[in-house]
Every structure is written in C-alpha cells, then in structure tokens.
Amino acid sequence: MDDQRYPYTSDYEKHEVRRYQIGDKNGTLVAGGNGKGAGLNQLNYPTYIFVDQQQTVYVSDNGNHRVMKWNKGAKEGIVVAGGQGGGNALTQLWYPQGLFVDTLGTIYVADSQNHRVMRWPKGAKQGTVIVGGNGEGEGANQFNGPL
Questions:
Q1: Are strands 28-32 and 78-82 parallel, antiparallel or unpaired?
Q2: Which letter does DSSP use for residue 101 in this model?
Q3: Distinct helix (H) and strand (E) counts, the chain
Q4: Phi/psi-derived region of residue 103, left when phi > 0, alpha when psi is between -120 and 50, beta in every other case
Q5: What is the pTM (predicted TM-score) of this model?
Q6: Domains along the chain?
Q7: pLDDT tens figures, 101-114
C-alpha cells in the first residue's frame, strides 16, 4: 500500500504488479505485464513487493533470481539486486522473497533458497549477508527458506 492508501498486488501467474484505487476493478499495471520472461519489461513469478514514498515499486522477481525497481510510470524496470542467475555468490540470489527498502535506498531481501537475508546498498553490484548463510538447518545461525 502506498502513501495514498492504494493497495498493490503481485499476480504470480500473470507475471505483473498492479495498483488499485477504490472502486477500480482492473487496476493499473505498474510492473511487468509483458508475459513471463527475463526482459527488463517482464517478470517471472513475482512474489513480494515494496512501494516507497515516490510510488517506486520494488519486486522480488522470484523466477529470475533478482529484485527489480520500477519507477512510477516506467515501461521497464531496473535490476537492483541479483540478476546473475540463481546461485549463492554475493552477486546472486536464489528465489528471492520478502523485501524491504529503507530511506537510503538499501534493499533487504530474504534470499530463500540460500537460507539467508542479504543487504544491497543503493547502486551496489553485490550484497552482503546479514543473517543466515550457513546452510539450511535448525541452528541459531541458520534458516530454512526464509520468506
């Protein structure tokens, strides 16, 4: 939901994100909507979203192992985390899920299948592991598919 109280929803099967206003049945396309794919105007199973005060939409592009940033009115997004294929390097994500963006533009993302939470400062080419990253497990320093 943005500052104007408009809800946003990611449609996992339609590979898009829409914003809704009260009484609006169709919503407004704000990210994706060009079929499943890896292009900058496409998403591949979008999951979690975050909307900032400028109505910029950040999307966990789950199937493309990246986080995308869509500025208000943009026809394509910008890769701001991951995007180097699925993997466990600091430049990669593996099925990203929950995300948060702070006022400095730093992205925090649950890197689900790497069992870690990563921080990507604005403009960074790689992230840092801030929690987990020690494999799947029951230990205090481990996660099992964080969302």
A1: unpaired
A2: E
A3: 0, 11
A4: alpha
A5: 0.96
A6: 8-132 (2.40.10.500)
A7: 999 999 999 999 99
